[in-house]
Design a protein that fits this description.
The chain is α/β, with parallel strands linked by helices. It contains 8 helices and 7 strands, in the order βααβαβαβαβββααα. It has one domain: Aconitase, domain 4 (Alpha-Beta Barrel), CATH 3.20.19.
Length: about 190
Amino acid sequence: MKPVTRIQSRTAVLADENIDTDRIIPARFLTTTTREGLGRVCFNDWRYRSDGSDDPAFPLNAPEARGCEILVAGRNFGCGSSREHAPWALLDYGVRAVLSSEIADIFRNNALKNGLLAIVVGAAEHRWLLDHPGVELAIDVCGQTITRPGADPIHFELEPFARHCLLEGVDQLGFLLHHTDAIREFESRVEEAA
């Protein structure tokens, strides 16, 4: 994982509510344990026509949404089944942050563990973001703020361990491996005491 300290991008908006993990990545694509390539099937059944061509009705296929790294989603984003493939697909697609007034807990935890910033904002801020697609935002992970033009910054909360891992660019296993010497020392003390 790369450290996530600051994300600056225009926003793309998917205003639909209750976008579940099967909509993010359909179950038939969950046969892989690698993250690479999942971006091409992200929102697969919503994004493409039956002939495989881009569906112009899908909001992220609009020219102004291309290259946006911040996704503003409708309420209750990431609900449904727990699948780590959903944040993997979003990251591989190019999304680095998801903002919503409500993000399903399991999805949010999976996202943060994999370097995808999942931020819950207040209802008023969420409405503003939905009403301003394409706005340029700057997300500061250390300061836990979102800067937006012509409006007050948005403050958000991150669990301290998740924030630490994002800023350091490590997942839970990487965090543990970074403390291998201390773990060995502890194990030695326990063995000697036994």
